[in-house]
């Protein structure tokens, strides 16, 4: 009884504080002239719909296709490697494209990012290959104890 | 009557959410990922607000000049945590994705409002992460708004809509976190496998970028937007003298520093400044973009300059740059920093006169302060008594 009451109060408090904070942010966005509202709104809509209706479904579809014909023992490892690859790419892409480079400032984006990205990808997939080899060998020496239901 | 063929009926709104078949999706996974994501968002919010308050101090705010490296840690944490959010947010959103297609979209007004708040939450989260990444990659053109203020206000929207979300979902979260662990019957990744993948992604992203502030990792961080070893005099630069348009004024032999205080105004040439007692300090230059690099600076103590024009130890100091049009042309050094013996008007770095890009003829360098406030190409210093 007391737990449910304290839970109810925690929930109310969270929602009330959340409404205040979010409203403060929304009012800030609407009134701060430096935000430049039309461009801000356009960017917001682009990332929201771009993620929900393009990037995420595409990632799910590509992941499903790429792992579809893999044997059961290999599938989770490759799925994990794909998660790492995709999220690393999100961070690396703006650097690899290099639009932030400036001729007057060689210390901004000073590295060879396509090379760095390639090194990271190589690291991911070398580790993945090593894990797959170990799994494959182990599978050969010890037969899978869990009986598989006939499909 | 026309019969729609079977494959197409799957795309009916009421059938759409059933097309997602992974058994890995569960309140258990969502709550466990969400718990870590929530902590990461809180870290970003607190460190981000701190950085904002240091630059635009509210009346109640006090920021000390020591420890010297404190801001370096908080801002490095802000950027590193923000990057770690990428895999967490990706898996979190994947785990609840079918709910986006729930049909009917809402049953009553309360649920409609709640779903709208989710829209705000997801949009704000994606906004903060993507603008943060674009900003550290110095790629401003996709953001045709002012990053700093937009990132600040959206942080409030994010933290607020997250609190609403937690309030709404609290019973489900509690139940899910208290439920006994039962392995998921799945052909692919297990729940533990998801956490291993997310952990690996965070580890790799961190190692690949953290060297921009942790010098020992600089050789390893192949995707660091900065290298603390690279730049004029082995030190990175955010804004060059060319970009600031100060080359002519900064190299003019007629350059004089105007020093104003309670007892009057003095004009000091570079030779006059070099003739004053020189002090050396090891201080980091710490950018809001998360990189930092330590160097040995030599110059005149700000507190000595304050005393020379009759200022007290409680005085603030207004420092102006030769730059004509910049948001960061002027910075105010609060009393704790102005009175700190480590705060210098630096003339030299690593034993050499400052490179033009580092603020020649002289720049401000103070402990525990963001780089944008370490004014370069200083031409006027005004002592303001409380």
TrEMBL record, chain A:
Transmembrane regions: 12-31, 43-65, 77-96, 116-134
Keywords: Membrane, Transmembrane, Transmembrane helix
UniProt superkingdom: Bacteria
Protein name: Uncharacterized protein
Natural source organism: Catellatospora methionotrophica
UniProtKB/TrEMBL annotation, chain B:
InterPro entries named among the record's database cross-references: Di-haem_cyt_TM, Mopterin_OxRdtase_euk, OxRdtase_Mopterin-bd_dom, OxRdtase_Mopterin-bd_sf
Record keywords: Membrane, Transmembrane, Transmembrane helix
GO MF terms, alphabetically ordered: oxidoreductase activity
GO BP term, example: respiratory electron transport chain
Residue ranges of every copy of the Oxidoreductase molybdopterin-binding domain listed in the record: 253-385
UniProt keyword annotation of Transmembrane helix present: yes
Parts of the chain that traverse the membrane: 33-55, 75-97, 118-140, 152-172, 193-211
Xref: Gene3D superfamilies: Oxidoreductase, molybdopterin-binding domain (3.90.420.10)
GO cellular component: membrane
Pfam families registered for this protein in UniProt: Oxidored_molyb
Protein name: Molybdopterin-binding protein
Organism: Catellatospora methionotrophica
């Amino acid at each position: 009884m007391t737990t449910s009451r304290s839970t109810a109060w925690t929930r109310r408090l969270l929602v009330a504080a959340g409404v205040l904070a979010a409203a403060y942010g929304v009012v800030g966005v609407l009134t701060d002239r430096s935000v430049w509202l039309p461009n801000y709104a356009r960017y917001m809509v682009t990332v929201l719909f771009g993620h929900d209706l393009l990037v995420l479904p595409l990632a799910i579809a590509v992941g499903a296709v790429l792992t579809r014909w893999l044997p059961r023992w290999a599938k989770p490892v490759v799925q994990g490697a794909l998660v790492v690859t995709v999220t690393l790419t999100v961070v690396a892409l703006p650097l690899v494209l290099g639009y932030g480079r400036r001729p007057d400032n060689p210390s901004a984006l000073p590295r060879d990012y396509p090379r760095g990205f390639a090194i990271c990808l190589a690291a991911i997939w070398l580790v993945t290959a090593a894990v797959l080899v170990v799994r494959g060998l182990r599978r050969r020496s010890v037969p899978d104890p869990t009986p598989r239901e006939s499909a | 009557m026309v019969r729609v063929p079977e494959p197409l009926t799957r795309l009916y709104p009421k059938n759409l959410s059933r097309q997602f078949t992974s058994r890995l999706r569960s309140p258990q996974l969502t709550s466990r990922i969400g718990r870590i994501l929530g902590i990461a968002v809180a870290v970003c919010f607190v460190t981000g607000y701190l950085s904002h308050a240091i630059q635009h101090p509210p009346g109640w705010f006090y920021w000390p000049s020591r420890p010297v490296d404190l801001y370096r840690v908080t801002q490095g944490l802000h950027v590193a945590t923000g990057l770690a959010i990428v895999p967490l947010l990706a898996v979190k959103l994947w785990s609840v994705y079918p709910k986006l297609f729930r049909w009917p979209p809402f049953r009553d007004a309360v649920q409609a409002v709640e779903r709208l708040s989710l829209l705000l939450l997801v949009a704000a989260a994606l906004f903060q992460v993507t603008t943060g990444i674009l900003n550290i990659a110095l790629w401003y053109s996709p953001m045709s708004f002012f990053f700093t203020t937009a990132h600040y206000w959206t942080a409030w929207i994010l933290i607020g809509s997250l609190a609403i979300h937690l309030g709404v979902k609290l019973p489900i979260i509690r139940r899910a976190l208290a439920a006994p662990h039962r392995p998921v019957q799945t052909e692919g990744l297990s729940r533990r496998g998801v956490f291993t993948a997310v952990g690996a992604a965070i580890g790799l992203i961190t190692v690949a970028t953290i060297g921009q502030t942790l010098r020992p990792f600089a050789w390893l961080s192949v995707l660091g937007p900065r290298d603390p070893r690279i730049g004029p005099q082995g030190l990175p630069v955010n804004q060059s003298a060319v970009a600031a348009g100060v080359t002519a004024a900064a190299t003019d032999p007629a350059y004089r520093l105007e020093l104003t205080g309670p007892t009057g105004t003095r004009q000091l040439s570079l030779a006059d400044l070099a003739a004053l007692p020189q002090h050396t300090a090891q201080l980091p230059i710490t950018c809001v973009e998360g990189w930092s690099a330590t160097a040995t600076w030599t110059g005149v103590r700000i507190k000595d300059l304050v005393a020379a024009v009759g200022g007290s130890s409680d005085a603030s100091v207004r420092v102006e740059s030769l730059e004509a049009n910049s948001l960061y042309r002027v910075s105010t050094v609060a009393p704790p920093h102005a009175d700190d013996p480590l705060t210098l008007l630096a003339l030299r770095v690593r034993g050499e006169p400052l490179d033009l890009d580092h603020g020649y003829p002289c720049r401000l360098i103070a402990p525990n302060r963001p780089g944008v406030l370490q004014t370069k190409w200083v031409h006027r210093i005004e002592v303001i008594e409380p």
